[in-house]
Every structure is written in C-alpha cells, then in structure tokens.
Specification:
The strands form ten sheets. Strands 2, 3, 4, 5 and 6 form a five-stranded antiparallel β-sheet that branches. The N terminus is likely disordered. The chain is globular, with a radius of gyration of 25 Å. It is mainly β. The protein contains one helix and 39 strands.
Length: 646
C-alpha cells in the first residue's frame, strides 16, 4: 500500500515543548460581590448589529490549502460535545472520519474514513484522484463518529451503528494500518437494553482504548468503557473490552475523555443538570492515575450558586439577588497536555436574573449572551476565551446552538501552546430561511490557558445575506486533532450550503444539501498570539478569577534559549525554523551542507527581542539532501539537522 511504502521517510520522534516561565504575580483590582454577566448590563439586546466580516482571506492562499476529503447530505456531524474527528499519527498521516449521508434525506447513513499523506498532500482512500473515503461500518445505519490513532498508525473510529430502535456504541479496528478495512466491536455489551451511543474516544500511552458513551433519550445516563486492542505482527485482530462503568447522568450528550501523552492518567469531563428549576448545569471532571483502573471522586469545577427565586420578592436588591448569571451549555472539550495537566474548555449561556426595571420579573436571556471558558486542574481558574451577543429577537440560532460554542482543544507538541477552535455565527449573513451562517475560529494561549489571544477567523467565507439553499457558506462541526504537529494545526469542518439543520425531526431548519468535508492544515504562524482578550470573571463572586494577569500583559517570555526542530521536516522547498530567546540579542542563523560549507544565510547579525521567533527558509535553489542549521547569539549557539526532499 502507498502508505506503508512511505514509513522509511517518517520522522523518528516528536520534539516535546519546553514549559515557559510565568511572569511574577501582579497586584490588580478584583471584582467583589455580584456582577451582571460581564459588566455589559447597559448593552441593549434588541436591534444590536455587528459589522460585516471582511472578504474571504488567507484560507484561499496557497500557504494554507484546503483539502476536500468527502461529502455528506447529513449536516449534523455531532450533537453537544464533538470529541475528535481527526487524529495525527507519529509519521504525520492524518486520519479523518465523518458521518456520510448518501442521499438527500440521509435515509442511507454510514461513517467514513480517509487518510491524508503529508508527503504528497493527498488523500489515499480509495485513491488520490477520487477522495471520497472508505466506509467503516457494515451495519444498516451508523453515525456520529470520532477517532484516535495509536503509535503504530492504526486508526480506531468510535461511532454508533444498528437499526433505528437498536443502536449501540462501537469501536472499530483496522486490519492494517491505514488500510481502511475495519471490524467493529461493541462497547458495554452488558447494557443489552440500553442504547449507549454517541461515543468519544482517546487512546492512552499504552495503546489502550477509553470511551465515553451517552444513553439515547431518557435521563441521558452516561458510561465509561475501557478496552485493549489486539494487534499481532502488524495485523489488527480484535478489541477486548475490560470495563464498563456507570457514570453520573448528564444534561445532554456532553461526556468527553482524554488520555495523557506522558503517563497513564485519564480524564473524563461532563455536564450535569441537577433536578430543580433555575439551577442549571455544572462542569464536572474525574481523573484516573492508572489508565482507568481506579478513579478519584467526581469534582464539580464550576459549582454555580443556585438562583434565589424569592430574593427580590422578599425585599432584596435585584443586583445582589442575581448571583451567578451564566451556566455551561451542552458541550465541552477535555485535553491532557505534556505537563500531565488536564484542561477543559466549555461554552456558557446567559442565565436567569432579576430585571431591575421590573423587580417582580425573573428573566432568562440564555440565547442572547454566549461565551467560552477555560479551566485547568493546576490553577483551578476560569479563563475567558471569547464571547458573542445575539440581538435579533425574531431570528433563531437553530437546534442546540449558541452564538459562539463548540470549543475544541489542541496542544502544540513543540511549544506547549494551547489552541482552541470554536464555531461562531455571523449576525449579518443569514440563509433565506433566516438562520445565521457560521465560521471557524481559532485562538491560542501561550501560558497554559491563563490568557487567550483574540481569535482568528480561519474560514472567513462570505455567505451573503438571505442566501438561497445551495449558496450558503456556513462552516460548522469544527474539530481539531489533539496535537499540533509539524507546525500545523489540523482542523476538520463541514461547509453547509444551507444554514440550519435539515435533519431536525420536529421541522427542518434548512434544505438538505450535498456538503463537502474539509481538512485544513493551518500553519501556527497564521494564528496571532496577541492582542489578548481582556479578563472577565465567570462567577459573580469572582472566585476562580485569575490572580496573575493584567490587561496590558501580553505573554510570558521564554525561560531560556532554545532552537526547535524545523517544520515540516522532511520538506520540499520551504520550511520554518523556530527558536526562543530569553533576552534581546544579536542573532545569526545559517544553513550548512554535510561538508560544512555554508549553503544559505537566514539571519546575519540581526538584533531580535526576547520571545519566540519563527523564520521561513526557502531552499528552492539547493539540491536534495541533509543540511544543518545553526543559530548563534553572543552567548550561545545550537545546531539541528533537516532533510530537503524533492
């Protein structure tokens, strides 16, 4: 197979990033007592307008190509928590999955797989000229697929399959790495009378499988399952399930699972909705230090206050009675990075509060305000990522939607930077039926999630106003591979040609259209690390409000001098060279051939400031072969190898 023939040129290992040092603590004023949302209580809700976005930009640029890997008529790739729909193996191959509706009503629906080669930038299944992928399941009907990959390059899609009244969650194993010939194995077989479906998946450092599942309908019971794949002499044989645990019930399809890249640690995150009016949801997490054998107690990381529905009626002031005025929505993303720290990103909506203009009225503006937040177990803080307001009272956002939602986390294996993608609707560009069109956004944190840069619109398409079906350009179902590798953020999304869900059972929001599924490798240098979003408290009493940063603090400086492996490597014509400087200095960056002769000069005695730097090297005038690049300052130097392949 083409993929197997390429193993000898694969990279030997991933270069793990170095942790950067945080700046010293800074004193600053903190919000005391109740706050009204984010301090925007004077902002009018109705009639709010947003400027139209600029014309389509850099994703059409050759430095950031878009690859169409398949099609679907089914325009909901996930409900609630998305998990991961693509994974990158250690050799740079990108394994991708999606739900493919084969006809306009999606009565024929299956899950598909494709694999992208970093060496010739094509999809390999079934052939590079016709990249429609290969069907994973062998059932009457299947859908809602996620995926992870092991060190040997075997992809493990997780999805549900069966008939309309008897679905069950499964994980499939490939016969050969990258072949696309899968055999499914049912998870949680003891649940014979329960449809435990919508699986999310993560593989641990030992290659074991960890899955989260949600019951269809009812109380939305959730489950955790663990399994061991059997691979003998390069052949995927079977999957042996070793555990199926009952998990706390959830608000919706919210469970997500993550495995550490450096230990046997596992983290599972989900949302709960306690029974009772005006209580709302909380984010919970549970971790295991030993690959899922034992678990700590569930931890409520948001623990929002219950709204006192009698406060104003008993004479209280509306401002002080409001309490917590945001609640997590129906989706989250969990990730464990190379420092073995678990991170969670989640969306939140506006909640109930007392209207000061009418002290007897308890209002719910849940769809008006939406925001994204980050939490990690090291700092136990709530870090603001992004927000959006929606001011059109006559137009709905559609099924299970907020103005901004569906965060998805990734980590750079070189720098340790965290990235978060999300879906954001446009308030001007809408379909003919009045449903807003979405875009894919990505933001970055250089300090472990404590501050986030202003997000970049990475799809940035112009879908028009009152656009008819077939002409909309609404990006949705955005997920990232959990690792940023080769200097690229690996993103997948669907381009919906008529905004709104066409499969909604209580009435379609849009017309079914045949939509492309896209893969986009986004160079990290296209995602600016500044300016930063301002700090905002999630909790009304400011608990969990970050104590370090100030609004004018940009980013932590590197702790030491470091020269990283170039990316991509091997490369054809151009590559990127990244390095850190702990202090401003004069820098030279030169390239040598195997005989020690200088082949090129990238920097010659240039004065650079402290921080992270990336320079592009164009080797189009050089022959193929092994080269060395050497970085020199007035105090130190470092040299690394790179391979030019034509």
């Amino acid at each position: 197979m083409q993929r197997n023939a390429l193993w000898f040129v694969a990279l030997a290992a991933i270069v793990w990033g170095l942790a950067t040092a945080a700046p010293p603590p800074v004193e600053r004023n903190r919000v005391q007592g109740p706050v009204f949302l984010t301090g925007m209580e004077d902002t009018p809700f109705d009639g709010m307008e947003f400027p139209a976005r600029p014309a389509p930009a850099h994703l059409d640029d050759p430095i950031c190509p878009i690859y169409a890997m398949g099609t679907t008529w089914y325009d909901n790739q996930h409900n609630g928590t998305a998990g991961k729909q693509l994974a990158v193996d250690r050799d740079g191959f990108v394994h991708q999955v999606w739900t493919r509706g084969a006809n306009s009503g999606s009565s024929i629906r299956h899950v598909f797989y494709n694999i992208w080669s970093p060496f010739d930038s094509t999809f390999l299944l079934p052939n590079p000229e016709n990249p429609i992928g290969t069907q994973i399941d062998a059932s009457p009907r299947a859908g809602f697929v996620t995926v992870d990959v092991n060190d040997q390059g075997f992809a493990f899609p997780a999805f549900h399959e069966g008939s309309s009244d008897n679905f069950h969650g499964v994980v499939a194993i490939d016969f050969l790495a990258g072949l696309g010939a899968f055999v499914s194995s049912q998870a949680c077989t003891r649940l014979s009378n329960v449809q435990a479906i919508w699986p999310t998946i993560s593989l641990d450092i030992n290659g074991n499988i960890h899955v989260g599942l949600t019951e269809s309908g009812g109380a939305s019971a959730e489950y955790y399952a663990r399994a061991t794949p059997w691979i003998s002499e390069g052949v995927g044989d079977s999957i042996q399930w070793t555990e199926c645990l009952d998990w706390p019930s959830a608000t919706f399809i919210t469970i997500d699972v993550a495995a550490s890249p450096v230990s046997e640690k596992i983290a599972v995150a989900w949302l709960t909705d306690p029974v009772g009016e005006h209580i709302g949801t909380d984010v919970w997490v549970r971790t295991s230090p030993d690959g899922g054998l034992t678990w700590d107690e569930p931890r409520n990381i948001t623990n929002f206050h219950v709204v006192d529905t009698m406060c104003v009626l008993n004479g209280g002031n509306p401002d002080s009675c409001n309490g917590d005025t945001m609640r997590p929505w129906i989706d989250l993303s969990v990730l464990i990075e190379h420092n073995d720290v678990a991170h969670i990103a989640f969306s939140a909506s506006g909640f109930y509060w007392w209207n000061s203009a009418d002290s007897t009225q308890l209002e719910n503006h849940g769809y008006v305000f939406s925001s994204l937040w980050h939490w990690d177990e090291l700092h136990n803080e709530y870090n603001f990522i992004h927000e959006a307001w929606y001011g059109h009272s006559t137009v709905a956002l559609g099924m299970n939607n907020l103005m901004v939602h569906r965060p998805n986390l990734a980590v750079d294996t070189v720098t340790g930077y965290l990235y978060c993608s999300f879906h954001k609707f446009d308030s001007v560009q809408v379909s003919a039926a009045g449903f807003p069109q979405g875009d894919a956004y990505i933001t970055v944190s250089t300090d472990g999630g404590r501050r986030w840069a202003v997000a970049t619109n990475v799809s940035n398409t112009d879908g028009g106003v009152s656009t008819p079906a077939g002409e909309c350009m609404s990006e949705r179902d955005i997920t990232l591979a959990k690792y940023v590798t080769g200097g690229a953020i690996h993103m997948q999304y669907m381009l919906d040609l008529d905004a709104g869900s066409s499969i909604r059972t209580d009435g379609p929001e849009g017309v079914p259209t045949l939509n492309n599924i896209y893969y986009v490798p986004i160079p990290v240098e296209l995602i600016p690390t500044s300016p930063l979003e301002p700090e905002k408290p999630l909790r009304a009493d400011s608990t969990g409000f970050p104590p370090l940063a100030t609004d004018d603090w940009s980013r932590p400086l590197p702790a030491s001098f470091a020269l990283y492996q170039n990316y991509p490597n091997p490369f054809n014509a151009t590559t990127n060279i990244q390095f850190d400087l702990a202090a401003e200095t004069i820098v030279s960056l030169r390239v040598f051939d195997v005989l020690g002769r200088e082949a090129a000069t990238v920097l010659s005695g240039q004065w650079l400031s402290a921080g992270a730097h990336v320079f592009s090297f164009d080797a189009s005038s050089l022959p193929s072969g092994l080269y060395f690049y050497r970085l020199e300052t007035d105090r130190t130097s470092a040299t690394r190898k790179m391979v030019l392949m034509r």
